[in-house]
Design goal:
Blueprint (H helix, E strand, L loop, with lengths): L2 H11 L6 H24 L9 H4 L6 H17 L4 E6 L2 E6 L4 H4 L13 H13 L2 E2 H8 L4 H9 L3 E6 L7 E5 L1 H7 L10 H6 L14 H16 L7 E2 L2
Antiparallel strand pairs: 1-2, 2-6, 3-5, 4-5
Helix pairs in contact: 1-4, 2-4, 6-8, 6-11
């Protein structure tokens, strides 16, 4: 039995993403369990044949070997033109149907229509993504308008969450992105957003500067954040293969 097939079985059976470390641990646990059964049988005087070579060889399975197995599976899926692939997300790997089959898969859910975020919602989400954790006042200072409605919409969509309170007068709430945000945009971390390092470095307007015109660098940063985020919205999101 090959490691790649075992990894595939784990990913099919699990409803949650699995990391390579976790998959390797599960494989080793199965071997340890078999060894324990054999040891018990030996102690109780029952015939206890040695573990099969293929199973014994899995006792030292590593995360790197699991990664290689996933690459092998994806290559096989690509070659045989399968409708799914194994993709990595912040919490691990998961099977997803390929985007090109999205219009067919949607027929399973006739009552659910694809929802697109409005421009203002995308701008608000982009500011949170690039500058998190961030307060509502800071977001409004950047956008120049009230953002209560946009924040509520993003909270309702589970794309952002309240991550705590700032050490500022009044202890304002801090907003940050959720795991669903990473799923929606198909990335593993904020660093994978376009020009993330550059845009996180630019000084944006403070709340007390909200009414003053932003300097050219700030205007450029806000424009870049909005346009990059809008461009990064997937046209066809992968669908979990569960």
């Amino acid at each position: 039995m090959q490691l790649s097939v075992i990894v595939e079985a784990f990913l099919i059976a699990s409803q949650d993403p699995l990391s390579c470390d976790e998959i390797a641990r599960l494989v080793r646990a199965r071997v340890a369990e078999a060894e324990d059964v054999r040891a018990r049988d030996t102690e109780e005087g029952r015939d206890a044949p040695a573990l099969p070579d293929w199973l014994a060889a899995l006792a030292a399975t590593t995360a790197d070997q699991v990664t290689a197995a996933i690459q092998e599976l994806n290559a096989a899926y690509q070659q045989s033109q399968r409708a799914f692939a194994i993709l990595e997300r912040p919490k691990g790997w998961k099977l997803y149907t390929r985007p090109e089959y999205g219009e067919f898969v949607r027929q399973l859910f006739p009552g659910r229509k694809p929802e697109r975020l409005s421009g203002p919602a995308m701008e608000t989400l982009a500011i949170i993504a690039y500058r998190q954790p961030v307060t509502k006042a800071a977001i409004e200072a950047v956008r120049g308008v009230a953002c209560d409605g946009m924040l509520q919409k993003l909270l309702d969509r589970d794309l952002i969450r309240i991550g705590g309170r700032a050490e500022l007068p009044g202890r304002p709430l801090l907003y940050e992105t959720t795991d669903l945000f990473f799923e929606h945009f198909g990335i593993r971390s904020i660093d994978e957003l376009p020009n993330a390092t550059e845009l996180r470095r630019v000084k944006l307007p403070e709340p007390e500067e909200a009414k003053a015109p932003a300097d050219p660098e700030q205007q450029l940063a806000l424009s870049a954040i909005g346009s990059l985020a809008a461009a990064h919205v997937p046209q066809d999101e992968p669908t979990p293969d569960t």
